[in-house]
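From the shared-data thread, chain only:
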Amino acid sequence: MSTPLSIIILTYNEADVLAPTMQAAATVANELMVVDSFSEDNTVSIAKEHGATRIEKRAFKNWADQRNWAMEQSLHPWVLFIDADEVLDKQLISSLHQWKSEKHIDEENYWGLRRIHFFMDHAMRFSGLQSDVVVRLFHRTRRYSDCEVHEKINVPKPHPLPGKLHHYTYKNWEQWKKKQRAYARRSAIDHQAKTGTIGVFHTAVKPAFRFFKHFVLRLGFLDGRAGFWYSISMAQSVYWRYVELKKLRLS
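Structure, as tokens:
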């Protein structure tokens, strides 16, 4: 017996990246549900044009909350989350068809997807991104941890399904900085309770170590120019987190 699959994509103003994501997902999904946070561009019409079987609209609180709500709406018990800027490659599509051809009854099971990140038009092979496996396929009774950013299912990292999930998160440097700054504001909320007095350690030492970690320890220099600027941006994100946390405490 086969197992039907609901694929869920969260969106907000994703018109410039959504079409290839939808096209790949539509080849696998029994239900292709888009949960849109009231986009102001053509996101919804593109989703409809490229295979969405269902579109829900809901105000956005954070990613964990939106994902948990979306699972409750899914038609099928097994769900796969794909971000709007991620594209299943052919091997991963084949793996998912193989997964669907089998009967899955143990609700505790889950599967990971191996991500390949594209940054400055470069497929990142190092820089701390070489071992990125995300848990995205599981039973809808699971829940994401309650946090503002970097939401996850709290389970050990699994061996990924064969194939890759291509992640096209970078458009240009200004867009990337804006995105990282927005993440920093949310990350500040997550770090509020566990951070003491903010000092030089937080605004200088930690960002410097983050650069060293990505560029040297995680071999970012082997990604060349892209590795350098990615490592710089990771250091900036740490610095911005504590800048935003200072603002939060003063507000």
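The radius of gyration is 19 Å.
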